[in-house]
C-alpha cells in the first residue's frame, strides 16, 4: 500500500475534499476526473462497444477505472481503489449505464463520465419543479429506453398532485425540451439522457440507496438563508424554500403569508409569460420555414413574377382548374389551405362524395355563404339550411352532438348570419380530425402530386432531347444536314 489505510466507510460523511487532501492531491477531485478522461496523459480508455443490435458509445469498464486509480494514485490494495471509486461514483462523477446504483465494481460493468455541467461543484440544489419536468419529459421520449421505474412513476404522480395548478407550465416546458432534444444526433442524445438520469440518481436516489446530498453542508447553509435565489437545472428559479412532495423536510415549514403567495404568483406568472413568448417565437419560426417557398418577397414567383413584367402565365396558373404541384403541396399544410383554395375545395368535395360524407363540407360552405347574404335573405336561407341538413328526416343530415344541436335549435328561432356558428365549428373539427387526414392519404391527393411530377420530368426529358438534336444538327456538314 503506497499510503495509510483509508477507513472502510460507505456513508457520505467522508468528504471528497478530505480524501483529496489525504492523498496529497493539489487540485480538486474534478481535476482527477479530467485527467482520467485525457488520452494524452494516459487516461482511462473511452470507447464505443458494439452490442447485439446497437452500439454503446463513450463507455469505460469498472476494471479500467480501478486499475487507473491504483496506478496513478499509488494504491496497492484493489479494495481501497474500489472504495475510492465508489466515493467518486456516489457524487455522480462516474455512473453505471445499466442501473441506478452509484457504486464502482471491479468487473466489466460499463460506466460513463458525467458532463461537467452536472458536476457537484456547481452547488445546485434542484427543485421539485425541475424533477417534475425531467420525469414528464421521460414519459414523452422513447418508452423502451427511458421507461419510468416504479418509484419514479410514484414520484411523478405525487408531484403532479402537488403542482396541480402549474402542471400545464411544467408540461409545456418538458414538451419544448423534447422538441429540442429530437434535433440532436441520436448518439449525443443517448449520452445526454444517461448523464441527466445519473444527475437525478444523485439528488433523487433509488429508495434504499445512500443519499449523498442529504447531509451536505451547503444544503444546511441554504436552509439557514431560505431567501437566497437558487440555481436551477432547467432555468426555473424559486426565491423561497419549497416543501418537497418527494422528500419531506426535516424541519416544519414557516407559515405562508400573503406576501409569499403574492410573490410566488408573480414569479410563476412571469415564468409562464416568458415561456409563452419563447414558444410563440418558435411557432413563428416554424411557420416561416414552412411558407418560405410561398413568399414572393423571398422566393421568386414561377414561371415569372407578373408584378414586374407583362407575363400573365402566373395568373393563368392560379385560376386554372389543374393546379401546379407547388399549389397542391400547400394543401397538405392545414385544412384551411384546402378550404380557401377553390380547386382544393372541389378536390376535397369529390373525395368526400366518394366516401358518402360530402354533407359535412356542403353544410360548412352553406354557412359560409350565409354570412355573405343580404339581410333580407338571411331568414329564408337559415330555414333552407335547417331543412336540408338539420331538420328531422333531412335529406343530407349531418352528425351533431346534443349540445351543439340544442344551441342551434334555439338560434334558428331568431335567425341571423351566425345562427349556425356552433354547428359549423363542430363540423369543422370533425373534418379536420377525420376527413382531412384521410384526404391527404388518399389516392386522389397523391395522384395530383405524382401527376405533376411526371409531367415535369417528361418536359425536362423532351427539352434535353431536343437540345441534343440541335447540337448534333449544328455539328454536321451541309450535305449531311440536308440528308438528315
Automatic annotation (TrEMBL):
It is a peripheral membrane protein. One of its GO terms (cellular component) is neuron projection. GO terms for biological process: G protein-coupled receptor signaling pathway; intracellular signal transduction; negative regulation of signal transduction; regulation of G protein-coupled receptor signaling pathway. Keywords: Cell membrane, Cytoplasm, Membrane, Signal transduction inhibitor. It is found in: Cell membrane; Cytoplasm, Cytosol; Membrane. The keyword Cytoplasm applies. It holds the Pfam family RGS_DHEX. Residues 40-115 form the DEP domain. Residues 233-258 are annotated as: Disordered. Residues 334-449 form the RGS domain. GO terms for molecular function: GTPase activator activity. The keyword Cell membrane applies. This is Regulator of G protein signaling 6. It comes from Podarcis muralis (Wall lizard). The gene is RGS6.
Amino acid at each position: 500500500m503506497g499510503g495509510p489505510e483509508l477507513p472502510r466507510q460507505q456513508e457520505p460523511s467522508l468528504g471528497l475534499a478530505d480524501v483529496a487532501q489525504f492523498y496529497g492531491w493539489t487540485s480538486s477531485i474534478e481535476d482527477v476526473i479530467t485527467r482520467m478522461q485525457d488520452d494524452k496523459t494516459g487516461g482511462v480508455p473511452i470507447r464505443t462497444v458494439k452490442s447485439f443490435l446497437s452500439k454503446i458509445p463513450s463507455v469505460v469498464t469498472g476494471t479500467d477505472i480501478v486499475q487507473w486509480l491504483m496506478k496513478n494514485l499509488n494504491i496497492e490494495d484493489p479494495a481501497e481503489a474500489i472504495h475510492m471509486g465508489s466515493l467518486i461514483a456516489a457524487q455522480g462523477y462516474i455512473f453505471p449505464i445499466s442501473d441506478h446504483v452509484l457504486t464502482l465494481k471491479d468487473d466489466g460493468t460499463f460506466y460513463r463520465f458525467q458532463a461537467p455541467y452536472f458536476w457537484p461543484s456547481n452547488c445546485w440544489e434542484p427543485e421539485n419543479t425541475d424533477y417534475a419536468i425531467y420525469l414528464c419529459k421521460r414519459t414523452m421520449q422513447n418508452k423502451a429506453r427511458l421507461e419510468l421505474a416504479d418509484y419514479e412513476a410514484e414520484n411523478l404522480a405525487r408531484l403532479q398532485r402537488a403542482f396541480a395548478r402549474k402542471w400545464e407550465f411544467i408540461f409545456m416546458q418538458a414538451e419544448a425540451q423534447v422538441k429540442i432534444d429530437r434535433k440532436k444526433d441520436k448518439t449525443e442524445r443517448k449520452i445526454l439522457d444517461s448523464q441527466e438520469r445519473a444527475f437525478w440518481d444523485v439528488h433523487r436516489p433509488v429508495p434504499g440507496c445512500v443519499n449523498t446530498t442529504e447531509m451536505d453542508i451547503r444544503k444546511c447553509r441554504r436552509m439557514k438563508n431560505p431567501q437566497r435565489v437558487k440555481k436551477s437545472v432547467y432555468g426555473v428559479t424559486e426565491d423561497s424554500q419549497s416543501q418537497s412532495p418527494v422528500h419531506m423536510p426535516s424541519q416544519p415549514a414557516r407559515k405562508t403569508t400573503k406576501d409569499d403567495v403574492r410573490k410566488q404568483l408573480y414569479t410563476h406568472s412571469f415564468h409562464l409569460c416568458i415561456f409563452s413568448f419563447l414558444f410563440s417565437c418558435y411557432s413563428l419560426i416554424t411557420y416561416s420555414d414552412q411558407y418560405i417557398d410561398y413568399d414572393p418577397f423571398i422566393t421568386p414567383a414561377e414561371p415569372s413574377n407578373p408584378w414586374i413584367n407583362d407575363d400573365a402565365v402566373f395568373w393563368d396558373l392560379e385560376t386554372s382548374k389543374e393546379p401546379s404541384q407547388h399549389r397542391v403541396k400547400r394543401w397538405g399544410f392545414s385544412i384551411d389551405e384546402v378550404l380557401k383554395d377553390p380547386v382544393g375545395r372541389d378536390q376535397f368535395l369529390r373525395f368526400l362524395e366518394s366516401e358518402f360524407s360530402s354533407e359535412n363540407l356542403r353544410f360548412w360552405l352553406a354557412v359560409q355563404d350565409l354570412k355573405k347574404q343580404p339581410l333580407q335573405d338571411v331568414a329564408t336561407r337559415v330555414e333552407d339550411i335547417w331543412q336540408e341538413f338539420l331538420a328531422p328526416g333531412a335529406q343530407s343530415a349531418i352528425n351533431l352532438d346534443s349540445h351543439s344541436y340544442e344551441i342551434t335549435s334555439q338560434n334558428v328561432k331568431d335567425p341571423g348570419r351566425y345562427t349556425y356558428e356552433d354547428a359549423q365549428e363542430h363540423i369543422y373539427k370533425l373534418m379536420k380530425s377525420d376527413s382531412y387526414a384521410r384526404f391527404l392519404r388518399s389516392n386522389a391527393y397523391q395522384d395530383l402530386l405524382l401527376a405533376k411530377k411526371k409531367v415535369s420530368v417528361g418536359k425536362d426529358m423532351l427539352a434535353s432531347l431536343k437540345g441534343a438534336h440541335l447540337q448534333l444538327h449544328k455539328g454536321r456538314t451541309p450535305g449531311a444536314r440536308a440528308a438528315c
